[in-house]
Design goal:
- This protein is α+β, with helices and mostly antiparallel strands.
- Among the domains are: 65-189, Prolyl oligopeptidase, N-terminal domain (Methylamine Dehydrogenase, Chain H, 7 Propeller), CATH 2.130.10; 198-209 and 223-300, no CATH class; 304-359, no CATH class.
- The chain is 19% helix and 30% strand.
- The protein contains 15 helices and 40 strands.
- The longest helix has 18 residues, at 26-43.
């Protein structure tokens, strides 16, 4: 098959022991403990590792980090970790106090004031009192009604896994309200609990209800609405997903509308609007009733008739539809990547004419949007660099037959005082044919509404690979003009960026496709100007339509760049840098293109003299772990080390391990013989060969990862050891898919990776 390496249908070596699949099995944990001890013994106490770990932990715990906040019911909420609070504090403050603690005051003088925080939940105290290592998963503060700002639903995870619980907390007292007193409560599951009305009397629940209630991927299939004091079995049934769907979800938007959702697979969905007072299904008299076949939905729910591959969202009185495939309506074809809109009421009546709000170009694609009270702010990627655009609907509201949307670009350069050249620009001072759009500033900018219903204020964060983040707040005027921008926080520099250059370049993949990448580091020359390739880390992801950004990287800067290393971010296919088509180009039978793109960047770095294969490490996690696993097995000659985190590696059975069943739309179904024929060609576990030399590998995972099973990393390490290959393994007991649950754990894991890379690449500068 074109584009694929020859690979056997099944591994030629003896099978890896099945007991490694037992997440907390006695033999498996003994094997993990042995490997962890060997890994720790090799690094702990060594000067470089301890220095890197100390430096990283100081960055993560620093008191001058930006405390990012979210507004609810007039207060600002923040979750904060530091050395004294490793699992964190959930806290809040007022606007006045938050502004007082900012870096600048009128006239440019520094403020002596500090922000006064009210601690709502101390997770370390809570964990000690309950004997559980609680990890923060978020909170929903009630924003309306008499209990606004006084009640919240808090999500907590035991050890950091995706499985979590929800509790209702009284914010006046900081006390969890027990179910016996009418408090809302969700038992541990991969489900959710959300407010269902303004008064806080009802919730939407998606919960594990026992046998038959979970999808093959482990997500609940049924949505119910509960009144205070009811059990899940007593609630109204709103939606039951088909048995083979990925799951069911529900939420209430900021305008009070209730939405129901099923996902047949990762990239398709069916959406319904449940009007107030709509007829629902009665509760079961016994256990929660689940349909054996097909999807059942409340009779009063209204189906949103858009392509299943699209994503539909209601904002104000408009329905916004993001397209992942071409859609022909009324003789007009809206291309994939477009954002179209229609008046919601008219659309539901089958009369709404679609209005094109954004149409992709050859370089610019939509990655997201946020809505203020009167404006829609789009975030675009233009050749992988952020841009913002403000759209304003007609003031009189949706008018059938008229567009009337105004649009205005929001220049990131204006946010940084017109000094964009100081933030790093594409290309190098000397000509380089690989440079992509030389001279433009490479700035990362994000925008989000402060309160999308009440006002037009906008959070803005600006950074670059060499300049730390600045947090601002501004106001959008009636015409979409941004004014009154106030700098609230400015993070300090965490590493010495003097002499570090940032450039954007392009490699050419096997099929001729241009593949962009960002390079940051000092020139690959010595003091006399002679070529001196540097130790380089090439990072990639390449999946699930996720684009990689170019924001400030303090840990990379301190642990790698400051010491003379080069860091490269590859914007390969499979990601979302160029929209849904860029993603689809690397799906399933086309997966080889993702790995060809990454290999092309690796080759180009050597050809340009940036590094050499023996001085190049590849780094990726999750789907990125699959990516670097394929670099290890398909292109070992191109790399000198592999850093592989929480990875997918055994693609023959990924669908039967934890959440893997939900990713069949990305990779294919290995249980289908025809699909296994192409999946086996990018299954790193099956591509390992006896007698072949592989570069040293660091495999990192978490026992608590209930998204990607730790068996992927365990069995790969075991097989590499059988082959006599150099492998370092570490499995953290906490952290879930994020590898770690405290800053100390994060610092250890990161130091392990950078120290490993320096050693493997003979980290000389």
């Amino acid at each position: 098959m074109s584009g694929y390496d020859d690979a056997p249908a099944r591994p030629s070596l003896p099978p890896v022991p099945s007991w490694l699949d037992e997440v907390e099995g006695e033999r498996a944990l003994a094997w993990v403990a042995e490997h962890n001890a060997a890994t720790r013994a090799a690094v702990e106490g060594t000067e470089r590792f301890e220095t890197i770990r100390t430096e990283i932990e100081a960055i993560l715990d620093s008191s001058d980090r930006i405390p990012h906040v979210a507004q609810a019911a007039g207060r600002l909420y923040n979750f904060w970790t530091d050395a004294d609070h490793p699992h964190g504090l959930w806290r809040r403050t007022t606007w006045e106090s938050y502004r007082a603690g900012g870096p600048l005051r009128a006239g440019g003088t520094a403020s002596a004031a500090t922000t006064q925080w009210e601690t709502l939940i101390d997770l370390d105290d809570l964990g000690r009192s309950e004997g559980t290592t609680w990890v923060w998963h978020g909170a929903q503060v009630l924003r309306t009604g008499p209990l606004a700002g006084r009640r919240a639903l808090v999500d907590l995870s035991d050890g950091g896994s995706d499985t979590d619980v929800t509790r209702e907390v009284d914010l006046d007292t900081g006390r969890f309200i027990p179910p016996a007193e009418g408090g809302f409560h969700r038992e541990a599951s991969k489900g959710a609990l959300a407010w269902a009305d303004d008064a806080g009397d009802r919730v939407l629940t998606v919960v594990d209800a026992g046998e038959g209630s979970l999808s093959p991927a482990g997500y609940p299939r049924q949505v119910r609405r509960l009144r205070r004091g009811q059990s899940p079995a007593e609630g109204e049934v709103l939606l039951t997903a088909a048995a083979d769907d990925d799951g069911a979800w529900a939420h209430r938007d900021r305008w009070g509308r209730t939405w129901l959702l099923t996902r047949p697979d990762f990239y398709t969905e069916e959406l319904w609007l449940l009007p107030d007072g709509a007829r629902t299904l009665p509760p079961s008299a016994g256990p929660i009733a689940l349909a054996e076949d097909g999807t059942t939905v409340a009779p009063g729910a209204v189906h949103i008739d858009v392509p299943s591959s699209a994503r539909a969202t209601a904002v104000w009185d408009w329905l916004l539809i993001s397209l992942r495939e071409d859609w022909e309506v009324g003789g007009v074809t809206h291309p994939a990547g477009s954002l179209v809109a229609a008046p919601l009421t008219a659309f539901l009546a089958g009369q709404g004419r679609l209005q094109a709000l954004f149409t992709p170009t050859s370089s610019a694609f939509l990655t997201g949007f946020t809505a203020t009270a009167h404006h829609l702010v789009l975030t675009l990627l233009d050749d992988c660099v952020d841009a913002l655009e403000v759209l304003t609907p007609p003031r009189e509201g949706p008018v059938e037959g008229r567009d009337g949307w105004a649009r205005r670009s929001l220049d990131p350069g204006a946010l940084i005082g017109g000094q964009s050249d100081e933030w790093g620009s594409a290309g190098e001072p000397r000509p380089d044919p690989a440079a992509l759009r030389p001279g433009r500033p490479l700035i990362d900018v994000s925008a989000s509404a402060v309160d999308g219903r009440e006002n037009n204020r906008l959070w803005l964060t600006v950074s670059s690979l060499t300049r730390p983040s600045t947090l601002m707040v501004g106001e959008l005027g009636a015409d979409g003009t941004l004014s009154g921008v106030d700098v609230l926080r400015a993070a300090p520099e965490r590493f010495d960026a003097r002499g570090i250059e940032v450039g954007q370049y392009a490699a050419v993949s096997a099929d001729g496709t241009r593949v962009p990448y960002i390079q940051v580091g000092r020139p690959a020359t010595d003091v006399k100007g002679r070529a001196a390739p540097r130790p380089t880390i090439l990072y990639g992801y390449g999946g699930f339509e996720v684009p990689l950004g170019i924001g400030y990287l303090p840990v990379v800067g301190k642990a790698w760049l400051e010491r003379g290393g080069t860091y490269v971010i590859a914007n390969i296919r499979g990601g979302g840098e160029y929209g849904s088509q860029w993603h689809r180009a690397g799906l399933r039978e086309h997966r080889h293109r993702v790995y060809e793109d990454f290999a092309a960047v690796a080759r180009t770095l050597s050809e340009r003299g940036v590094t050499t294969p023996d001085r190049l490490a590849v780094h990726g996690g999750s789907n990125g772990g699959l990516l670097v696993g394929n670099m290890l097995t398909r292109h070992p000659e191109l790399v000198g080390a592999v850093l592989c985190e929480v990875p997918l590696l055994d693609m023959s059975r990924y669908t039967h391990l934890l959440a893997g069943a939900s990713w069949r739309a990305e990779y294919g179904d290995p249980d289908d013989p025809a699909q296994w024929e192409y999946i086996r060609t990018f299954s790193p576990f099956h591509l390992l060969r006896a007698g072949r030399r592989y570069p040293p590998v660091l495999l990192v995972t978490s026992t608590r990862d209930d998204r990607v099973h730790p068996a992927h990393a365990r069995t790969m390490a075991h097989r590499l050891e059988d082959l006599g290959q150099a492998v370092t393994y570490f499995e953290n007991s906490e952290g879930g898919h994020g590898r770690a649950s405290t800053n100390a754990q994060r610092a250890f894991m990161s130091a392990l990776e950078y120290d490993f890379a320096w050693r493997a690449l003979k980290g000389r500068t």
